[in-house]
């Protein structure tokens, strides 16, 4: 049995009762509102393809549709990407901006996230290009240019309050991951380590590289260590290096993701913020911990 989730962005509450009724007419099932005008679920839809039916009714409206199993609805483990997922920016691109080569580095980042380049090689190439950037400048970038993605703190705080373990596993850098994991409330953070000499970047990153296999292995290892069935796990990300963990998790979510990732994830969120991951689990707004 399954649940069809209909979710709008809290900043643009476009999910009106008439739209939900029109979707329910096509899918059948029982309507249950989780947050008026923002999130609704249709329990046990009977359409052959409820998501396709919903999207045909939604049309161009900024509303996401995803089908999730009723069983194992609330997850006990979350593994999340950082750049362009829990934060709005790609940290390496912002570092490159400080030395005047953002466009060059961002082009490499885009290709790597689309799966067009080897992740490790692309990472080492980009880090080499920002050699000499000093620690003070990096701290300033972290403080002034990096912003938390909306809904992230509510997602993590709510899941932890209900007993879940949360892990931030990033192909980015510990300099950012450790800092933002603490601000958001994650239980742990894993990322790559930039190397310094006299407070200046050496243009190198320590081995081994945190890549797609690291993300997948952390999901599987945490599940085993904590006795969490894979069905009770969730992974979220946007890039090609997130795809393995997204496909392996009990519920894999592509958030504002690259085309390849969005096409293969079990759930695709294009419009909502990170609170969508709570609605997918059946949390109502009054259960959120903020």
Summarize the SSE layout with pairings.
Blueprint: E1 2-8, H1 17-27, E2 30-35, E3 39-43, H2 50-58, E4 63-69, E5 77-80, H3 91-98, H4 102-113, H5 119-129, H6 135-144, H7 152-161, E6 165-173, H8 174-184, E7 188-192, E8 194-197, E9 200-205, H9 212-225, E10 233-237, H10 243-248, E11 251-255, H11 259-264, E12 267-269, H12 276-280
Parallel strand pairs: 5-6, 5-10, 6-7, 10-11, 11-12
Antiparallel strand pairs: 1-3, 1-4, 2-3, 8-9
Helix pairs in contact: 1-2, 3-4, 3-6, 4-5
What helical percentage do the residues reach? 25-40%
Main sheet strand line-up? 7-6-5-10-11-12
SSE order: EHEEHEEHHHHHEHEEEHEHEHEH
Q: Major sheet, described briefly? A: 6 strands, parallel
Mean pLDDT score, rounded? 97
Work out the number of β strands: 12
Based on the coordinates given, report the CATH architecture of the domain at 1-71: 2-Layer Sandwich
Strand content: 15-25%
CATH superfamily of the domain at 1-71: ACT domain
The gross shape turns out to be elongated
Highest-level CATH class of the domain at 1-71:
Alpha Beta
Secondary-structure content class: alpha/beta
Q: Determine the N-to-C terminus distance.
A: 31 Å
Radius of gyration: 19 Å
Q: Any idea of the CATH topology of the domain at 1-71?
A: Alpha-Beta Plaits
Number of alpha- plus pi-helical segments: 12
Stretches where pLDDT falls below 50 for ≥5 residues?
A: none
Describe the structure.
- With 290 residues, the chain is an alpha/beta fold.
- The chain has a domain at 1-71: ACT domain (Alpha-Beta Plaits), CATH 3.30.70.260.
- Helix content is 39%, strand content 23%.
- The protein contains 12 helices and 12 strands.
- Strands 7-6-5-10-11-12 form a 6-stranded parallel sheet, with helices on both faces.
- The longest helix has 14 residues, at 212-225.
- The two termini are 31 Å apart.
- 48% of the residues are buried.
